[in-house]
Amino acid sequence: MSAVAAAPWVGQAIKRKEDPRLIMGRARYIDDINVTGQLWAAFVRSPEAHAKIVSIDTSAAKDYPGVHAVFTGHDLDLEAPLPMAWVPPGINVNNPPHWSIAKDEVNCVGDPVALVIGSDRYAVVDAAEQVLVEYDPLPVVVNLETALDDGAPLVHEELGTNKCHEWSLGGGDLEAGFAAADVIVERRVVNHRTAGAAIEPRGVLADYRAGSLTLTSSTQVPHFLRLFLGLQLGISEEKVRAIAPEVGGGFGSKLQIYGEEIALAWASRKLERPIKWVESRTEGMLATHHGRDQVAHVRIGATKEGKITAFHTTIYQDLGAYLMLLTPTIPSLGAFVMSGVYDIPAVQTDIIGVFTNKVSTDAIRGAGRPEATHMIEVCIDQLAAELGMDRLDLRRKNFMDPASFPHETALGVVYDSGNYPAALDLLLTHLDVDAIKAEAPAGKLRGVGFSTYTEICGLAPSRVTGPSGFGLQTGLWESAMVRVHLTGAVTVYTGTSPHGQGLETTMAQIVADRLGTDPANVEVIHGDTGTGPQGLGTYGSRSTAVGGESVARATAKVADKARRIVAHQLEAAVDDIELTEGKFSVKGSPDKGMTLGEIAGAAYIPENLPEGMEPGLEELAFYDPENFVFPFGAHACVVDVDPETGNVDVVKYVAIDDCGPAINPKLIDGQVHGGIVHAIGQALFERIHYTEDGQLVTSNFADYALPSAADVPSFDLDRTETPSPVNSLGVKGIGEAGTIAASPAVTNAVIDALRPLGVTYLNMPLSPMRIWEEIQEAKS
Ligand code: MCN
Fold first, then answer.
1. At what angle are helices 369-387 and 391-398 packed, to 10 degrees?
2. Does the record's keyword annotation contain Oxidoreductase (predicted)?
3. Do the domain assignments include residue 269?
4. Mean pLDDT over residues 404-429, rounded?
5. CATH (domain of 676)
6. Residue with CA nearest ligand 1 atom 37
7. DSSP secondary structure letters along 419-482
8. DSSP structure class, residue 329
């Protein structure tokens, strides 16, 4: 074991513990895992966007060499359709049945209609092509903005409408706010459809034997998965074990209970064989949930002095064909922070959910908050232009006062912490706007764009989120177990389920400081419902603020017991035992102390312990926070636009973020890098595109333009650290912050560049073609 060399570990940019196995090919993803007797599965998917299933002839596929079985939707005798989506309390939704395998009707291209199972991975794909499905095509609706028109085709005829739900979240007197405004700006703001595009596609291995199900899946939520597998299949929960092995990215797209997971589990039970399926990239683009796809009508009013008086948005959300786990909830996450970093007396968000014949939308990194931030940050720039004010002066004029935190907004949401002027001040030390504009290369139009943001994350607390609308009584907490072994090595079990965030490192840092050991001696186990305590997964940047705090609390309990053992062994008072230089020692006598290994050695021998103390050194903690946490920051983007081609080059990007005290600055930087690239991708390149008849055009990475390292500059990052009062670590989330902040910074930069040509407003995606067309239009 390595010696304690450099405590405190929290705050240090140590390298990620998980990286050696990841970069040396030693990690085991779902595609690496195979079991004896395993069969393979392939799904037959609908080529029609909307159709009745007239008949399915499976005979040729069943006769195909190596095929064991072919199942259709009617064969699957499941307890119920796929899980009811979580719905904000008190909101009524139309929730059409969504079966793992379609029964009588398909509602989007890619809907599964049959499941082929056989002994060979490639033969089942060939056999799937032998399944003959007769469809009776129905009219298709793809366009969110016409789906509610009279006479529009209906996705679910039986509902009599494409509207799923309509509700509002607001606070303050909106009418009075707009009446007090001298200037009102209205814009249509588009947040187009994107994919999660994790590099590792989804995959499932279902193994039902002797009454128990083990399901390994590339998922972000193994504990939820176990719960729903049990409910869907009618298996008692303790007989289900869900395992998330190494997961190669999720970005929200694996925060789901997918029909493929349920169907494979059902088939494994039916055939009494393990069955595996790994999706192809095209299958993933067709059938893994998408995100965003909102069109908002935004109104913002201000006095001529620049005080914002009211902000109103009406969001139309394209739900796709069905409700999935969080589909109807996504805009509400944005609605909670719709007023952004500004003190606005009246704010209202109206949310209208609309069905279309496309794959469902759900959480993609940021889920609701990138959309909300985009709306307000782009419209602030529009308002500044209308008022003839400097866009940063307008922001400063409306920032919430740093002295007002915890700050209750007009909606009644209490932001835990914030200091927005400090973030903007720091940003400007990294960027001389006049100088950088003067350096524009010949023939290019240079623009600078800003975004000052906050977001709501650390998803919990149960008092707001639960009991959930799944018909289950569960809160949204997190738990952790910390075990010190006889040797002093430590194992941490967390209910969160990282898939690229580096939590094995940061959680080890949290533990190491509290037990006087080295992070190298701390192993973090996650993603297996069979080994750890319960948990609720990794999403909504909750793992550190909620999961990390539960780890800190369990560790504090262990440290407390360690202190009592040391006091007993050294015949000192418990209050006199302190942790210094890797030892629990007596105050004032650093030589008189015990290392964690020595304490653990004592902890397992009852005669070493104070009377009545149980042997062992391990503890469990559940943590349900009082509030969400609200990271914030200020971002700036510099672009060069080629007016001849419409091409945009991002030449500089500065990000100031505040996620409270850094556990590991290196990991934070990595998260911010990824987050910014994600948003640059949406702003400039990425777009899920369906034709009017519901065919997916962007079905692989040749057509769906993910940005590469060559498309982005080296980022200039810095931080302010405003501790959250919500948890003892003071931490807030960072996993989504870059994505939430960056799309308006890029968009505002492009608009800034094009203003001299008369282009004053643009919607994403800012493709060369769109920009070129806007330039031509402005010229004419
Ligand atoms: N961290 C830190 N100090 C802080 C706050 C966070 O060092 N003050 C560290 C954490 O300990 C962790 C990382 O930053 O190592 C991110 O932590 P957190 O913000 O708590 O976010 P989560 O771990 O809950 O991750 C979820 C978030 C989400 S919602 C998406 S989507 C996303 C993201 O993380 N998907 C990702 N980052 C991703 N990164 C990768 N590589 N792959 C994905 O799929």
1. 120
2. yes
3. yes
4. 98
5. 3.30.365.10
6. 735
7. -HHHHHHHHHHT--HHHHHHTPPTT-EEEEEEEEEE--BS---HHHH-S-TTSS-----EEEEE
8. G
CA of 141 to the centre of ligand 1 (A): 37
Atom of ligand 1 nearest to the CA of 500: 41
Distance of CA 733 from the midpoint of ligand 1 (Å): 7
pLDDT by residue (tens digit) across 729-779?
A: 999 999 999 999 999 999 999 999 999 999 999 999 999 999 999 999 998
The answer to whether position 244 is within a domain reads yes
Task: Name the residue at shortest CA distance from atom 32 of ligand 1.
Answer: 251
Average pLDDT, the chain: 95
Same domain assignment for residues 408 and 530: no
**Neighbour count for residue 238 (Cβ, 10 Å):** 11
Q: What is the pLDDT of residues 44-63, one digit of tens each?
A: 999 999 999 999 999 999 99
Q: Does 687 lie in the same domain as 611?
A: no
Question: Which residue's CA lies nearest to atom 35 of ligand 1?
Answer: 251
Could you tell me if 579 and 718 lie in one domain? no
Among the three residues 563, 588, 623, which one is the final residue of a domain in this structure?
623
Q: Which of 663, 499, 779 shows the shortest CA–CA distance to 11?
A: 663
Which tens digits make up the pLDDT trace of 269-295?
999 999 999 999 999 999 999 999 999
The alpha-helical segments, DSSP class H, found in 11-103 are 19-23, 59-63
* 385-407 core/surface letters (b: 16 or more CB in 10 A; e: else): bebebebbebbebbbbeeeebeb
What residues does ligand 1 touch, defined as CB less than 6 Å away?
198, 249-252, 365, 498-503, 506, 538-545, 659-664, 667-668, 671, 674, 731, 733-736
ipTM over 0.95: yes
For residue range 585-643, what is the model confidence (pLDDT) as tens digits? 999 988 899 999 999 999 999 999 999 999 999 999 999 999 999 999 999 999 999 99
Q: How far is the CA of 671 from the centre of ligand 1 (A)?
A: 6
Please tell me whether residues 768 and 752 are part of one structural domain.
yes
Q: Is residue 233 pLDDT above 50, yes or no?
A: yes
Task: With respect to residue 182, please indicate whether it lies within any of the assigned structural domains.
Answer: no
434/523 same-domain check: no
Count the domains in the chain: 3
pLDDT band at 7 (very low <50, low <70, confident <90, very high): confident
Indicate if 399 and 489 belong to the same structural domain.
Answer: no
- Pick the closest to residue 211 from 185, 240, 168, 249 (CA basis): 240
To test ligand 1's pocket by mutation, which of 478, 510, 543, 658 has the most ligand atoms within 8 angstroms of CB?
543
State which ligand 1 atom lies nearest to the alpha carbon of 506: 11
Distance CA 347, CA 334 (A): 12
Q: Return the best residue to mutate from 416, 544, 551, 663 for the ligand 1 pocket (most ligand atoms within 8 A of CB).
A: 544
DSSP single-letter state for residue 342: B
> 541 CA to middle of ligand 1, Å?
6
The pLDDT assigned to 463 comes to: 82
Name the residue range of residue 571's domain: 19-27+477-623
Domain assignment present for residue 300? The answer is no
State mean pLDDT over 419-444. 97
Task: Indicate if 229 and 126 belong to the same structural domain.
Answer: yes
- Per-residue pLDDT reduced to its tens digit, 692-718: 999 999 999 999 999 999 999 999 999
Question: How much distance in Å is there from the Cα of 630 to the middle of ligand 1?
Answer: 14
What's the gap in Å between 584 CA and the centre of ligand 1? 32
Ligand 1, atom nearest to 540 Cα:
29
Return the structure tokens found at 775: 């330039």
Residues 456 and 489 in one domain: no
Q: Distance, CA 540 to ligand 1 centroid (Å)? A: 9
